[in-house]
Amino acid sequence: MVPIRLTEARETLLVTLYGRALDARAAHPVLGDTMAAEAVDAIDFDFRRTHLTPRTAPTVAVRAKFLDGWVREFLREHDGEATVLHLGAGLDSRVWRIDPGPGVTWFDVDFPEVIEIRRALFPERPGYRMIGVSVTDDDWLAQIPTGRPTLAIAEGLSMYLTEEQGLTLLRRITDRFNGGTTIAFDAFNRLAIRTQRTNPAVRMSGATLHWSVDHPRELVRDVPGLRLRDAVDALTAPGAEQLPRGTRVVSSLLRPFPAVRHMSRYLRYER
Ligand SMILES: C[S@@+](CC[C@H](N)C(=O)[O-])C[C@H]1O[C@@H](n2cnc3c(N)ncnc32)[C@H](O)[C@@H]1O
């Protein structure tokens, strides 16, 4: 069994991993990530602490499936010749779900302690590298080759950064990679940050959420060179019909309120 000693933001990866594992074990999975279920079986951790249940787990799987869709679309748009940076990858097996061809170089990036656990759980694969750093470090991007279409994808990461850290990261990515760059991530608004104590990952880990993106277009002002391609409400995005019934009922009742509609969004920018 792989022991886990993670705290705060790092520990939250266990919540999303367990969500995907529960989904994989369901009779009709949304995502069907069997590697997540195998990883959970190999980890020495009391996953009951996540408070996720088979009923609530689809919340995690629906988000992962939506963002997988954007990764596939990017690779299609660039004929499978690209670099993918998966930031705050945690123990997500996205690279195996997407299973990119030989023209893709894929980097999974997370804190060194997290990458150490990844190495113990997941096999190597051609064209795939793991980098153990904080995405807020100033020089790690120098390791990533330039000159090819590049996708930076992050799921469940932006809210753990401060606004300054998030904007600096976006500026560094847009500075390093030129045309053909896409940056895709999910973001919370101010209401989601204010009500963070209701978030299972925050409750379990004691992590603090910081960055809220209330107006996706503002990032275009703050990060030179960025263009907004999509801002999609998670509650009504394609695939949201597979969210847990309770979430769908509450979401349809509260849909008239923009602050609720925009609590969690999928954002896609281009350079
Ligand atoms: C909620 S988990 C999501 C993990 C993964 N994306 C998933 O969906 O399962 C948040 C992840 O962000 C990572 N993270 C938070 N701040 C980070 C930073 N400054 N640098 C690198 N990774 C970070 C954590 O270690 C953790 O793996």
Detail the topology: elements first, then pairings.
Layout lengths: L1 E2 L4 H4 L1 H13 L8 H9 E2 L13 H20 L4 E6 L6 H5 L5 E7 L1 H10 L6 E5 L17 E5 L8 H14 L4 E8 L1 H5 L5 H6 L12 H5 L4 E7 L11 H10 L3 H4 L2 E7 L1
Parallel strand pairs: 1-2, 3-4, 3-6, 4-5, 6-7
Antiparallel strand pairs: 7-9, 8-9
The protein binds S-adenosylmethionine.
S-adenosylmethionine binds next to α1 and α2.
Protein name: Methyltransferase (TIGR00027 family)
InterPro entries: Ppm1/Ppm2/Tcmp, SAM-dependent_MTases_sf, TcmP-like
GO molecular function: methyltransferase activity
If you had to describe this structure to a student in words, what would you say it looks like?
The longest helix has 20 residues, at 58-77. The protein is 39% helix and 18% strand. Helix 5 links the parallel strand 3 (82-87) and strand 4 (104-110). The chain has helices spanning 8-11, 13-25, 34-42, 58-77, 94-98, 112-121, 163-176, 190-194, 200-205, 218-222, 245-254, 258-261, and strands spanning 2-3, 43-44, 82-87, 104-110, 128-132, 150-154, 181-188, 227-233, 264-270. Helix 2 crosses helix 3 (34-42). It has a single domain (58-270), classed as Vaccinia Virus protein VP39 (Rossmann fold, 3-Layer(aba) Sandwich), CATH 3.40.50.150. It contains twelve helices and nine strands. It has 271 residues and is an alpha/beta fold. The termini are far apart. It has a seven-stranded mixed sheet, with helices on both faces. The structure holds S-adenosylmethionine. Keywords: Methyltransferase, Transferase. Pfam families: LCM. GO terms for molecular function: methyltransferase activity.
